[in-house]
Amino acid sequence: MKKILLLAAVAVMGLSAQAQEFRFGPKAGFAMSTIKIDDKQDDLNDRKMDPKYTFYIGGMAEYKFDDNFGVQAEILYSQLGGKEKIEETDGSGMYFGFQNKVTFGTLLVPISAKYFITEGLSVAAGTNFGIILSAKQKTVIGTNLPIGVEIDGVDGEGERDIKNEIKKLNIAPFVGVEYMLENGLFFDARYSFGVSNLSNDGSGGKITNSFAQVGVGFKFGGN
């Protein structure tokens, strides 16, 4: 009986070891980022900036516990943010407008749990821990007024550092889907929901950053 139990235990451990799988590799892709602003001191409450289109690049590591469940961790870099354009005209033909583009240079650390529907197709849910390394706002002012116009220290066109006005950590839960070919090439898509208030100016307003990502990568390793 002891021999039978020992053989059974060895067999189970062997199957378990065979099911476990570690893969790693590079990934890169396209990102669409938006910023939502709830400025308590502004009439434009709950306004959403237009999408900023950018790229991301980095690497990933995946560990499968069995045929259906696994975990994944990544390190990515992306210049997230948003942009907006405001224009005003009157009946006399006077025109005034400006464009703002906000860029957050962000180091992303996504950690997720994965469920494998088939060997190649999986869905994931997790959290993106974004570390904002830099924050800049570029403003372009346009007008046909005969006098110069200056807003927030920007005359005509300029860029300013807003890192002190933005918190360093952007926590964003996400859901996603991935499909991997037999050779290790994979394609994925996910959406990260901005829940962290990034405003650090003490005005009581709220700034959140959400973003979608579509990418491609390659996994090395496996059984």
Automatic annotation (TrEMBL):
Protein name: Porin family protein
Listed Pfam families: OMP_b-brl_2
Gene source species: Chryseobacterium endophyticum
Annotated signal peptide: 1-19
Domain of life assignment: Bacteria
InterPro entries to which the protein is assigned, alphabetical: Beta-barrel_OMP_2, OMP/PagP_B-barrel
Record flagged with keyword Kinase: no
Outer membrane protein beta-barrel domain residues: 18-199
UniProtKB keywords: Signal
Keyword check for Protein transport: no
